[in-house]
């Protein structure tokens, strides 16, 4: 069924309206918070007998606000993005550093996660012996492990991207393992019996049934893994004394009390995560297309 | 507890044999034992003179399950080609055989569609085409039309009968529908539960040409009633 232009607009409005309402509500809460926190400072700084409206304006445009107003964060973000990409103040540059760590970390997590899942599904021994360690690995705070990883790898002569990517992968591989294990185990008895009637070998069962059946499980896991790779990359930049990357930028801004910079960097980080999720969605869309519209 | 006891049955080449009985009579278990999907604890079972395991390895039979068991990520044509891929049939011949078998079940136009775009009856026809694609000498069917509505089921019974008549393929068919068994079979094996036993083997000698309205004839009704009586005689509460 083809939808008419009028109906398409209708559904577009129906889709964007809820998002818009939530965004407006969040902005309202944000402005209220900025106002409540900023008003005492604004009153102290303002000349006596300033009109209430003037105080409000001052509270929302403080130089070093505790809670910056949305338009201040937006302006800082835009200024950071508009910097030439070679500048150490360019948010694009820092985001690029973090993104490359996240991408390498994610690819590593993907390879290790899928290999582990295949091992766990095929070898009972691995299921019993490795799975508890995989779960335990996620209970260890990455922030505590990160410096150790960096120091140990630094002693082995590995510096720069690799240690950070390993920390990102550490956080990122878990949802890939768990979703892939569930996916590879998802074929039901009748689908497996069918291959048995053809006396298919283990490799055929894997590539013609278990692997394609797991895809519907893999993508939700990959979505989580993609955001965790970004978070992991940022976490890895915090304690490693990194000079570049959104994590380094966050640490510096926080150290020097530059709240505007801090918030703008946070927004940049969430934009990066959005892009990461969009990329997994795009990969999913390609597969869905190849499968005629369903995963 | 044993699912089957004292089952003694010989099926000749070209026969269409139905296994009928109430739930728990082991009719599916017997079929799965023939297919080497279950191992009998004792007794001798030979499929074309081979043990079930060897027969399975030699790809002697095609099996149609209660559900179509199509792989949703493969389109119809690729579902039919699945066994051929596993058996190493060259690509061109795979396509040709898929085309021919889809034609046989009247689904030539649906080759590029995906399972979820088909009705339940069409899906089951695809699964029959898949079972036939590698030209096995034996067709095993486990209540293939049990989940379908009566009208679809009638249509598929007619299809299956024509298919059996034109190919002369030995078929073992599990069902719990008396009219279906009488309509399709040359012989009907009536089974009883706990443990599964053969109560009676009834010939369904309605001839080779069977239009659907043969079910209104006296001969048809008579065979149906013999099956019903045998089922009752075998039932412990009957």
CATH fold node name of the largest domain in chain A: MetI-like fold
The total beta strand count of chain B reads 6
CATH class of the largest domain in chain A: Mainly Alpha
Structural class of chain B: alpha/beta
Compute the separation of the termini of chain A in Å. 21 Å
Number of domains of chain A: 2
Shape of chain A: globular
Subunit arrangement of the protein: heterodimer
Order of helices and strands of chain B: EHHEHHHEHEHEEH
**Class computed from helices, strands and strand pairing of chain A:** mainly alpha
Describe the 3D structure.
The complex is a heterodimer of chains A (295) and B (238). The longest helix of chain A has 41 residues, at 5-45. In chain A, helix 4 packs across helix 7, helix 6 packs across helix 7 (161-184) and helix 10 (246-255) runs antiparallel to helix 11. Chain A has eleven helices and no strands. Helix content of chain A is 80%, strand content 0%. With 295 residues, chain A is an all-alpha fold. The model of chain A has no long low-confidence stretch (mean pLDDT 90). Chain A has two domains: 5-66; 91-290, MetI-like fold (Orthogonal Bundle). With 238 residues, chain B is an alpha/beta fold. In chain B, strands 2-3-4-1-5-6 form a six-stranded mixed beta sheet, with helices on both faces. Chain B contains eight helices and six strands, in the order E-H-H-E-H-H-H-E-H-E-H-E-E-H. Chain B is globular. Chain B has helices at 27-34, 52-57, 76-86, 91-104, 120-132, 150-167, 178-184, 218-234, and strands at residues 16-20, 61-64, 138-142, 170-175, 187-192, 197-203. The A-B interface holds A 190-191, 193-200, 204, 208-209, 212-213, 215, 291-295 and B 35-37, 56-57, 59, 61-63, 65-67, 69, 71-73, 75, 82-83, 85-87, 113-114, 116-117, 134.
